Amino acid sequence: MTVQGVEFLPDSRRDWQDSPAARRRHAVTEANLTRHLDGPQRVLDAAGGTGHDAVRLALRGHDVTVLDPAGAMLTAAMACADDHGVADRVHVVQAMAEDAPELFGPHDFDVVLCHNLLQFAEDRVGLLRALTAPLREGGLLSVVGPASGALFVCPASDVLDDLRAAGAEVLAHYGVDVQSGHPLSYFQIIARNV
């Protein structure tokens, strides 16, 4: 499936992914998530784009499916996985995150990543319910979003309420890229599917 308007990989997105700030944020969110993982997991990376999170997790032995509507992003994700020798542990599916319940079974994943997506959703609780549909009971949901300084901001307190409304139990809340004098900061929330 190709979704109109998202079949490209803009140079600005590619440049940002390679920036020190992006690498630092990926490393911090991975470290936060890893605190809650035990052994290899089946991971769904919703709106996973170019696969930076997916490849990092695959290098740790996890089996990761990148779900994204943009074919160019998925092509870049598979190239990145191939470059790092983990193409056998990274899979791609071209579709919207809201399509997850129709694409996957109810216990297909142990972990779902919702990184930099929720702030764009018109129905955040609906999106969270769609993403927890293929998540096993007790599985983890990692949500990352901008806390301030961005055009689309989704306050962490609202996300905590949204997660509870979607039937998830919040386990941890982290600040990511919180720097003095820096206009943009991010949060990460780890929740359990109940």
From TrEMBL:
CDD domains: AdoMet_MTases (cd02440). The keyword Hydrolase does not apply. Keywords: Methyltransferase, S-adenosyl-L-methionine, Transferase. Residues 43-139 form the Methyltransferase domain. The keyword Transferase applies. Residues 1-22 are annotated as: Disordered. GO terms for biological process: methylation. It comes from the Bacteria. Pfam families: Methyltransf_25 (PF13649). InterPro entries: Methyltransf_25 (IPR041698), SAM-dependent_MTases_sf (IPR029063). This is Methyltransferase domain-containing protein.
